[in-house]
Amino acid sequence: MNNHQFRHRQTAHCESGVISNLLGHYGLQISEPMAFGIGAGLFFGHLPFVKVNGVPGTTYRIWPGAIFQRVCKRLGVKMELAKFSTPEKGMAALDKVIDTGTPVGLLSSVYYLPYFPPSYRFHFNAHNLVVYGKREGQYLVSDPVMDTVTEIDPVSLAQARFAKGFPAPKGKMYYPVHVPDKASFEKPIKEGIEQTCHYMLKIPFPMFGVKGIRFLAKRVKDYPEKAGERKAGLYLGNVIRMQEEIGTGGAGFRFVYAAFLQEAATLLNKQELSLLAGELTKVGDLWRNFAFSAGRVCKSRSADNVSYRELSEMLLQCAAAEETFFRKLAQVRF
After folding, report:
1. Threshold 0.85, pTM exceeds
2. In the chain, what are the domains?
């Protein structure tokens, strides 16, 4: 493994950003959108029975860790992965690996990262970052969502790695032990696209994919009646928060995937992927408009049934646009 200086690049989303930065360190150049696409990161799920801080959960991307596993598998990268029972063991293991000059990916809670502004520090336990060395007792951090490298003290890092709550990171760390010099992206792109289309169109449960967006639309319409005014605002607020703040959010993930299709179009010389990238950007705009209108409803403080009905209509529009898009994408022949 080479020990040249770790190169930090800011990215839109932590998991695909860490993949891009870590593999790039070993000479396998992969952009963040390409990692997101090959890892089939685009997804939708609304889980009323999975409460996050008492509020139903909504996700616009695949579950944490999945992008990483898929990219490694599809590109032939081998990762060493470890979790720990105590912070002492976890920190000792980290020190041992970075002493060899190997950058290490870590799972952490945003809440305990002091370099984040206070308004961004909330209990989100699936944030990925890279520690690539140590200087004067401080750990050197490449956090892909920050514009420059930064530092963190051992106490805060241990707290972030061993935060309580769901999902508990348990000090999870990972680093490459084998990275191929060259990798063909053709088959991985095709597999990533097929998997994304399957998840968005074919999961039989109503909470996932395009069906999941319609499922949420129906529930949003009934929020004022079924949940009451205060809870309706909370529930809606969380839908937007998951969309706009966690990672890059729902609309943002659509834009990242569009960038992946654009890159894939050039790599595979497939013009239709480029046209589909343009369509998906328009879908991303629909999500942005929804978030903007939902934000206004949340702030207006009145559980106005009319506006919740309108938001429900906007979600149905997003669902229709995504269904059309994914049906076209599923028909692209490679």
Report:
1. yes
2. 1-17+78-178 (3.90.70.10), 186-330 (no CATH)
